[in-house]
Amino acid sequence: MLVTTHLKQLTWVFKATAHLIKTVIPGIIGKIYVMENIIIIKTYGAVLRVVLLALKQHSLLAFSQLIDIAAEDTPKHKKRFRVNYILSSLLYNTKIIVSTLTDEITYLPSITNIFPSAGWLEREAWDLLGIYFHGNAEMRRILTDYGFSGHPLRKDFPMTGFNEVYYSLDKKRIVTVPVELAQEYRIFTLNKKLKNIFTFVTKK
Question: Measured in Å, how far apart are the chain's first and last C-alpha atoms?
């Protein structure tokens, strides 16, 4: 009973905080709702910095800590990348997610002068997914190797990659060569049902 009452009180606090955010930042956020005691804001790249700055500097919100920038890729959508900024208010013990969409061409504004810790997080998103952050002075790769081609966390990136890196005993150095997948020695076996379907399709 005490746990249920506590959860209800928490939900009321989060809903009140969500209402306050609507009042503080009117008209420039898309949607705001509470899900599992986390406030989620959907906004647009053009006003992202304004939203984050207001969340950080307003005395009744004080989301002063950037925990992470988490991005996801959905290639079928026109704006394939969803970028989630996860903030925490140490003063009020509250967490919030600010979410926005972008694509391969449209950049997002860097927030390094609002949250200095965003520098490496933005570089990681650029390296692994190819999301560009305009205004980041160090927008270069951070996890992949020198000369790496592509962005390995995109859903359309091949699992084998494009290049193979290994130490050559002949050349006495590390070499990079294109990946070659030999198929000659692979044996494919089909069960009877699949074999019948395959035969039917090829005949058609």
Answer: 66
Residues 39, 21: Cα–Cα separation, whole Å: 10
Amino acid occupying residue 124: E
Fold of 2-203: Beta Polymerase; domain 2 (3.30.460)
User: What tokens does 34 get?
Assistant: 């509470």
**pLDDT per position as a tens digit, 117-154:** 999 999 999 999 999 999 999 999 999 877 788 899 99
Query: CB-based contacts of 47: which residues, under 8 Å, 6+ apart?
Result: 28, 29
Q: Where do the structural domains in the chain lie, given as residue ranges?
A: 2-203
Alpha carbon distance 44, 46 (integer Å) = 6
pTM for this model (two decimals): 0.77
Rounded to an integer, the average pLDDT of 50-72 is: 93
Question: Helix, strand, or coil here: 89?
Answer: strand
At residue 156, the 3 state secondary structure works out as coil
For the purposes of burial, counting CB atoms within 10 Å of the CB of 161, is it exposed (0-12), middle (13-18) or buried (19 or more)? middle
